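Subject: Sanity check before I submit

Could someone independently write out the structure tokens for this chain? I want to compare against mine line by line before I put it in a report. The sequence has 389 residues.
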Amino acid sequence: MRGSRGAGGGTWIAALAAVVTLPALGVAGEAEAPGPGAGPLTGGSTPRQGELRDTVPITRRKGAAPRTVLSLPLPRLKRGDLVRLNAEVTVTTTCVEALPRCVGRRYSFDPRLRAWIVLAGDGKAVGGRRVSGRVGLECRQTRPNRNHHCPLVTGDSFRVANPARLPCAPNDCRLNMVVGAHSRRARGGEVVVIGADRPDGSVEGGKGRLNAAVARAGRGVESVVRRTTRRRARELPASFSGGRRVVYSQRVPGLEAGDVLLARAKQRARIQELPYFVGSKIVVSARPNARTPGRLARRIVSRRGTATETNGFNCTLGPSAFRSPCKTRKMGLAVMKRTPRDARGRPRPLFVNLVSRTFPKRAQARLRAYPPARILPGGGLTVTHLRAP
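---
Independent answer below. Compare away.
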């Protein structure tokens, strides 16, 4: 069990008005949160393996036992501050059969999942002030249309009108991502996993992240939105090893140290013959066709150039929450630790890339080749570039 790992913080980088000051780096390159004097723009994320718990109980009644699964402390909030936030978490059904990987009590029903973000003063609080919309779906447990993994993605923003009316002390506020699960067929002891269940019955985290960018009122923080719908890949090969493709890429020029990038992506893919696993991530790189961050981005971008974790779902041919055409949603954040420059010291643009892969979900699928997943129109990638003066 992960217990309360990650409950104490995340990675925060502050941009000051004239000089960029980075907080002292700690374990695994994670930074301490800036103090009350943080600059006009800060960006932060929960740490690697940031999930606070392994499971959430499935209750008979909606909203009976929600749990905080990710928590991010904020810098001191002041009147007029604008907080932009987004998050994604992977929830996994388990125990279709009595196997070693089973977690909790066996069940065959399809739990209903809900997730939202609250502003609170405690890292475990599920109350406080809701600051995002509620997202929900029915995660199919029953074959042949079993989703198994069900990512929940949400994002929003709020402005601090009166610090005295916050549900927390202005210097001690947190964002908590809350997840609940319910089904009328639950009898007690059934759970969903936060992350992914493993064959040995353990739980693998690192499938979710909670992000926020805080812009001070009246400090001239600029916002530039860029969007692309151009598909760089028209299909994803059915591959058990490799097979990753850049589906969308957005060029971002004029980046400087302390800038914050908020990324949002949508992808539509059609499958054939069998259920397919569809997995995706958003990375920042020096090239539009790069499937990994690359050497430069790993050095100068937060979280070594990754704007989201890698997660996904089983897309089905029959009715389910993720039925073909498979709809992928991603939201993430990246902070520039240094200004990107070329070998001659000149500023250079970077690229925000949506990278995806897929493979069939039956053991017999390995015996022959299967058709690729087709990338359909209707998706795109949006990047909001925030810059302090």
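---
OP: Matches mine. For the report I'm noting this point. Residues 1-6, 15-37 have pLDDT under 50 and may be disordered.
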